[in-house]
Amino acid sequence: QVQLVESGGGLVQAGGSLRLSCVVIGRTFSLYAMGWFRQAPGKEREFVSTITWSGGSTLYADSVKGRFTISRDNAKNTVYLQMNSLKPEDTAVYHCASRRSPYGSLYSGSSEYGYWGQGTQVTVSS
To answer: What angle do CA 80, 81, 86 make, to 5 degrees?
Structure first.
């Protein structure tokens, strides 16, 4: 059974930083691209960032570009999201997700992700 477990969320003041982690269990982590998505109250889930299986390429939503950094450690089955210069509009539940098929190119659409974590709450106060 594949499980994705996020951690690292919390309450932070605007301008602060957080690092989210997501451990993948029950799958050969290194074969699959990973993504981060977020959902704010009353809004649809939106793409944040994705990274290829090797970690060689990344993609970001325009709203987080230059502030967030995605990375992965295949030896630890873990993907990270470093979030700097946080803004109140970054407040949301953040979910990590694993692509359905191995390898593959960067993709921001949620339909290509077959496994999801429960999410971790990030709250940014003004």
So the answer is: 155
Rounded to whole angstroms, what are the CA distances from 112 to 32, 40, 116?
11, 21, 11
Cite the beta strand spans of 55-107 per DSSP E: 58-60, 68-73, 78-83, 92-99
The number of residues making up the chain comes to 126
What pLDDT score does 75 carry?
Answer: 97
pLDDT in tens, the chain (126 residues): 999 999 999 999 999 999 999 999 999 999 999 999 999 999 999 999 999 999 999 999 999 999 999 999 999 999 999 999 999 999 999 999 999 999 988 999 999 999 999 999 999 999
Buried/exposed code over 43-52 (b: 16+ C-beta within 10 A; e: otherwise): eebebbbbbb
> Three-class SS of residue 77?
coil
- DSSP letters for 55-68: SS-EEE-TTTTTTE
CA pair distance 50, 53, nearest whole angstrom: 10
